[in-house]
Batch of 2 targets.
Target 1
Amino acid sequence: MPPAAAKSGAPGPEPKAPLEKIAERAAPALYRMTLPNGLVAVIDARPERRTVYCEIGVRVGSRDEPLALAGMSHLLEHLLFKEGETAGAPKNPAFSKIRAAGGDVNAETSFESTRYYCDVHADAFEEGWRGLSNLVRQTAFDAADVETERRVVLQEAALDKNNPVSVAGYSVLGRLFPDDPIGQPVIGFKKSLSRIQVEDATGYYRRYYTPDNAYALVVGGVDPLAAAALVEETLGGWERGDPRPPLPAPPRPAPDRAFLFKTLTHQVYYGTGVLTDGEQAPERPAIDLLARILGGGKSSRLVRRIVESEGLTEDFDVQTYSLSNIGVLAGGGAVDPAKAERFKAILADEIARLAREPVDPSELDLAKGLLRADVVREFESNEGIAGFRGHRLLYRQDVSRDAWAGEVERLGPEDLLAAARKSLAPDKVREVEIQPARGFGKVMAVLRYLLFRRI
């Protein structure tokens, strides 16, 4: 009989694997557990909450795919998820069980991870967790399932190509990383998806879906010991596979510095930025602060110049995005064609300024405050907490918010200047520009779009 211990506040069996207490202010019941099969689980018990967020993540994504199997990770996610809402698709009992418990369930594939997650009422945690673990572990797809889900994914791919900006984004990745899986769309290509057979999917699953290449995460209204015992019961028997293949080497970008597209838009979409060394880089926290100084909040440098001083546009943003060993810091937005050159000049000037002179201490303090506030808002929900901890689990980092805050708080102006001089050097800056197509160029843009849609 399954233990009722998993429900919030209910007494029950304790896990056999030891629980390691993680120190974090405002998180008095935060624990880490490593099972004998190598799986790491983090339990963040918050008894005042009425819901529980559950996640099982696997360290596999489109970067692990050869070109011939582009889209394999995402297709496999569909095969395990098997919602069963398309014609001819059988209902997944695990999926149905989570739904019957009143939970929301979903999955997501990216460059380096595939995540399965659900959000349930605290009283239904056990049913939700058992359903989620069965989704990931109880594989039962066959050739007919592969064919059904292939059609679903091909339809998703076609819909994604209706956006001309997405078309340009795919094209930039392909041109910037022509010989690397990171240059492939996560969703894959029609040609590669049509080639995948059930044997490919099962082999891919056996290679990457192993406990030592995965993590588990529970956040919300649970008893931590009971939740850990349930995780151990459901995932402790997950057998280790062969050692995970090593992470892909950092991709070698093409020498191109500028990418220009003419397509079906009315405004100029312009972005400029640099490639970084990703999560492995010691300057990663400094890169986040540089992004806030550049474009975070109304007091940032770009808002003061682009919006308040010159009124060029309010439709712009600055973001960082990091994978294990590659990332990007970029800023850009949409602007009237008549104002595009001035917009581009200001972006270039402010990026160069970061690498030329140290930031003022008061400006740095403000950026740290913005970063802290972003994380505080993130921690208002179970899903937000899980997003923070899951990202750090994915890259085997300390999941404590206090540890993260320490990384940020110890940085001074000289640290940011060193990071900017390393990452924002002029020879590293790249530009992407999407211009409105006119005349015969518009005809060619339509033709390119139609051809791309068939890829």
Target 2
Amino acid sequence: MSQDNGKLIIRLEKIARVYKVGIEHIRALDGIDLNLHENEYVAVMGPSGSGKSTLMNVLGCLDRATSGYYGLDGHDTTKLSDSALAGIRNERIGFVFQSFELLGRLSSLKNVEMPLVYSQGGWFSRKKRAREALDRVGLSDRIKHKPTQLSGGEKQRVAIARALVCNPSILLADEPTGNLDSKTSESILELFGQLHRKGQTIVVVTHEEHVASHCRRIIRMKDGRIHSDMPIEEDRISQKAEEGNAK
């Protein structure tokens, strides 16, 4: 399933990822076909070992597929060098992690500036873009604060600002509310909703149905394959039917 409108950002064809563990070969991804379009808001779900984290790593160019085709913004990433992939990660993909991954000795502003270190433009341009990113996540009054001076929700907002500062084609969030209480989680999900409404493409890996319910499309994985791929409304109907059949 994919949107019929909007620019095609990601195209996966027969993507496989095989790991060798001793004499055994583990097929973490087994022939994934997937299209993602501009301004989609997608949840990737599945039990432990389903392949959802491996898929996230491949999408984020943190790991290479063993075989298959991965096109990002029309570029065949399977033929790129490691340095070129690093450039793709920095310029086209924004990452948000469960554990925030902020540098404790740096202010919020400096943390957000980090992806811009090798970008064109001087320090003034970097600071301006970092300030704008922090303003987008509602933290313009926390630019001088270090991580130890921020709440969990504020840390995650800084992490989201850092992910957005390069204007990425796609935002990848791995269990983004995993370390947050329910109230703070809701505020982060509302922020994702605001970003989506303004045009940002977002993919969230989560095991929480509540988090997935904020998305517009649900991809469910099982045994390294896509088990289902539906708009949120159809997914709800499908899940209810499965629950009924299980009783």
